[in-house]
Request: fold
Amino acid sequence: MKIILLSGGSGQRLWPLSNEARAKQFLKVLTDAQGQPESMIQRVWRQLKTAGLADDTVVAVGCPQVAMIHKQLDGNPKTVVEPEQRDTFAAIVLSAAYLYTMEKVPVDEIIAVLPIDALTQGEFFTLIREKAEPVLRSTGANLLLIGAEPDSPSEKYGYIVPEENSEPKDYRYVARFKEKPQRAEALALIEKGALWNCGVFCFQLKFLLSKLKELGLPADYSALLAGYTALPKQSFDYAVVEKTEHRVVLPYAGKWKDLGTWNTLTEEMTQAVWGNGMMSGDCRNTHLINELDTPVLVQGINNAVVAVSPDGVLVTDKQASTQIKGLVARVQQRPMYEERFWGWYKVLEHARYSEPQPYEILVKRLKIEAGKNLSYQKHHLRDETWIIIRGEGEFALEGRISKIQTGDVLKVPRGVAHSIRAITDLEIVESQSGSLLVEEDIERLFLDWSDIQAFCRG
Reply:
């Protein structure tokens, strides 16, 4: 069995802590068994390793999130990088084409697609590992799904409705689906044996290859990657699952919860206040999450989420928080906080001016972790000034390397190659000025410090 772990979300439902570069699966708002902060993807990866499935897993991830994957997960996981977000159908077929073309996976191999934002137990992965393949092969089904047995008539989840004459077995045949019904309808569905849809899809690789052929799409990974922007922008559920016959579902009796929205995520948080803030004693079922140094006080508010980050401030009723995606789509600004393989940066100020000619000013605070370095790079549209506010390091500028320390001011004109390496943890205030300040204005020459040293000494 091969696993495709979907980790390319846009980060809108957990705004403002999440953004396109730091999606919800990377937020360390859960805790592990030792009480240490843990992200969704770290939790799932740990469970995959325990189940013996991690080595057979490929992670489907968006371009801005590659660095975060390798920073948070050990073992250098295999990744399939989506050139752009085109929903789950495109991500799954690209990953399947990668397995077929690059990994030479046989066409009769079982593929299991897992979402990243589910909170569940180890038994969930054991069920997939031990039951999915034999049931798929014995029934000849095109698709196998996993359905959690409901503990309440929740309106938050989609439901898998089995066929009424489906005999009680380890599996049931699927009749139809119902997305987030009202409570009364959910009760009626549960009486018919309906299950919460866990978003897991299992199939033989040849099934998906045949779907690609039907749609006139290539099964070759390179060809599919080259034409990625033309792939249908649809969910896998809509494009494939709902239109496929002969589907079965495996019931799962353990704990399962979708953590993709604030109201479900806060149910699993071990404390009501995260970060610099306080809540009055009369607040009920309210959570405060603050990433800023500025204190936030909450008084007399019930059933709410207050979330604060460099990207913005959210105050929402928990039930209404599921609708935040529509509002966030109207927010037009760059990510104000990003984590990179070398550390992190936070935007402190960003201003645009039109006179005497159009130009921008951007001020960031960066932390480069000890032993890490920026790439040897140059910019064509901006000048930079770096002020070292803490730590020691090495500074490469146009072929020369020098030592730097707290208090140093470094000038980096546009078009000049440069890099910096932290000997101790290094904190920097960086000021950029130019006609267009975008992350894409980077020409990377070398990534490894050893290559930078060799170039500068040569």
In short: The chain has a mean pLDDT of 91. The domain at 2-262 is CATH 3.90.550.10 (Spore Coat Polysaccharide Biosynthesis Protein SpsA; Chain A). The longest strand covers residues 343-353. The longest helix spans residues 122-139.
